[in-house]
Design brief:
Layout (H helix, E strand, L loop, with lengths): L1 H29 L2 H10 L22 H7 L3 H13 L5 H21 L4 H12 L1 H33 L4 H11 L4 H13 L4 H11 L3 H16 L3 H25 L1 H24 L6 H4 L1 H25 L4
């Protein structure tokens, strides 16, 4: 009896001790301060799912964590961040939004002080607030065009390096060191990512995302296929470089042939605004009925819609893709 009692008491003691230890381990793994800190590090800023582990540097949407968490809920913010990166702008998404809002409010305030009605000042303010976005798109287009011009020489440099016996990462580093910006910076990112452990496939896919377009896509696809099935990569790079050069040459010829149409489109698009500005400076009361009379406001809306359709039509006619 005494042995059974002692055995039962010992079993109860062991069970309670194991239960306490299990509860302690569960609390340490899920509820302690260190566990919460680790969970925050593994979770995304805007969700509860574990963040994808990556060595690639993620562009910040804002310098403020709360604002970045708020912007992370919108896909448009990610798209704008990608646009800023492709344009080579160091500005964050939050600062760009503030710039557009400041331009909008400034124009609305100026027009309001000049006596303009809200039906006129708000659309004009929205148009002015879109000017930074237009300039950003123009900067992105110019930067991508510069990289397209530099791409054939970079491909030929990689091909010469491969013929000399260098490995592909070394050839990419030679492009990063010897080519001018902005293309050199993009290949430098590829080399750094491969150096820090990212696979060549992921690094090249990141390059194609940062430089959208068929030319870089040809290089990425050719390189990835060669790494999987084999083949003469140097010959492929020479062919791609020749194709890119011929395409750019043809695009330049098309641009020359369509110069007259583009000039006519600019004149037809800017002439009404220029003439209206001159008339307003000469006699402000002459154009006042356009935004003071309801019929004038409707006329402005109809004319703006027709001008927008005309601009899109002229753009589709003179823009020839090569």
């Amino acid at each position: 009896m005494d042995i059974l009692y002692i055995s039962a008491a010992f079993a109860v003691f062991i069970s309670v001790a194991l239960l306490i230890e299990g509860l302690y381990l569960w609390w340490s793994a899920s509820c302690s301060q260190g566990a919460r800190r680790l969970a925050r590090r593994l979770r995304e800023d805007h969700g509860e799912a574990p963040a994808e582990v990556t060595l690639q540097k993620r562009r910040r949407l804002s310098g403020n964590p709360q604002v970045e968490r708020l912007l992370g809920n919108f896909k448009a913010a990610e798209g704008l961040a990608r646009l800023l990166e492709q344009a080579g702008s160091p500005m964050t998404v939050a600062r760009f939004f503030l710039l557009c809002a400041a331009v909008f409010l400034g124009v609305v305030l100026v027009l309001g002080l000049r006596g303009a009605s809200p039906l006129l000042s708000i659309p004009v303010g929205l148009a002015a607030g879109a000017v930074p976005l237009f300039l950003l798109l123009r900067r992105r287009t110019r930067r991508l065009a510069t990289m397209e011009q530099q791409l054939p020489e970079a491909l030929e440099l990689i091909g010469r390096a491969l013929r000399a016996g260098h490995a592909l990462p070394t050839a990419i580093k030679m492009v990063a060191d010897e080519m001018p910006e902005p293309l050199a910076g993009q290949f430098r990112i590829v080399h750094d990512e491969v150096t820090y452990g990212i696979t060549m496939q992921e690094a090249l896919k990141g390059l194609s995302n940062r430089i959208p377009g068929s030319d870089v896509g040809y290089f990425v696809v050719a390189t990835l296929i060669q790494r999987e099935v084999g083949g003469n990569l140097t010959q492929l790079l020479d062919v791609i470089a020749m194709i890119v050069r011929e395409r750019l040459k043809l695009a330049a010829q098309v641009k020359v042939y369509s110069a007259e149409g583009r000039l006519s489109a600019w004149i037809l698009g800017l002439l009404p605004f220029g003439l209206g500005a001159v008339l307003y400076l000469v006699n402000p009361n002459f154009l006042a009925p356009l935004w003071k009379d309801p019929a004038g406001i409707r006329m402005i809306a109809v004319v703006a819609a027709l001008m927008g359709i005309g601009v899109l039509w002229m753009r589709s006619v003179i823009r020839i893709r090569v």
